[in-house]
Tripartite tricarboxylate transporter TctB family protein
Amino acid sequence: MAYGVIVLIYIISGYFLYESTKFGGDAGIFPRMVSGAIIFINTIYLYQTIKEQKENSKEIEKERNKLPIKPSKQFYVISILSILYIALLSPIGFLIVTPIYLASIMFYLGGRSKKMVFICSIAFTFVIYFFFTSLLHITIPQGILNL
């Protein structure tokens, strides 16, 4: 099951990567970077899954009657949130979707302080926005704000 999800993420990321090559000029750099980052993270997850299966192969042989190793619920939730983030990034915009995405992930992973989660998600969003727009002169998805 984990391999099916990994392949699905590769397909979706590859599609977004392919579509981003159609953008003119520097407009495709950010989508290519995001797609590349997702592919890279997915590759790390694939490596960890294979490594974990090799390490546990002796235990699996001893306990064949037990259920096979499955990805955790956490993996599925974060994957779905990430796919929604990518899908909503262009129509709604980076400045709106990113803090919501980051806060959702932080709360799901156990962030307890609402104030800290809010500050971190807003601060990180604006740091990334400043980095891309001011330093790299790359436009990021504006969505409904059209700044």
